[in-house]
Amino acid sequence: MPPIPQAVSVGVGDAASRLLEGARRASIWNGEAPIPVELITESLLGLAIEWAPLVGREAGTIILGAVDAEARVVYLNENERLLFQRTIGLERFTIGHELGHFELHATPGRAGEEITPCGIGDVARREVEAEAFSACLLMPEELVRQHTHGTNTALWPRVYSLRETFGVSATAMTYRLRNLGYRTPERFRTDAR
Ligand SMILES: [Zn+2]
Fold first, then answer.
1. How many Å lie between the centroid of ligand 1 and the Cα of residue 149?
2. Which residue has the higher pLDDT, 118 or 46?
């Protein structure tokens, strides 16, 4: 996951905020962390979440998920179940990523739209936007500011505690903190997301 340029994340952040507002109005979300991303997907947007074997176009790319906007299904890659099990928060982040495509890139009611499997580290613009959307959805700025108030985010125990609070991976949490202008631990541990 590359650092997300601010220019990309502004409009994307607005879209994530609108979805969260909708969840709040529908009493699906109480305004606290963690964000109930599965409930937002299924109950608010009416998308099913299913496991299925997904294969990418290029060999060697790790595919995590895909979205079929027409059939209203978010797919998680069954072939990567071990990776999902090993990486806390990866499943939630992948669902958020696919919601990003659904909210930002899908054309409602258009049949036959190509379903593109989403791989790790894809730097195509729509992939970067979907990553940013997921980060903004799962780690809303206001809540991050609330939970980091008066604490030193350059310490790993603090990042791990925030990771627990938001239900994301340490990598996702670290990128989000950086993009919001916080200090993060020097040695950047990386996991899938
Ligand atoms: Zn994607």
1. 32
2. 46
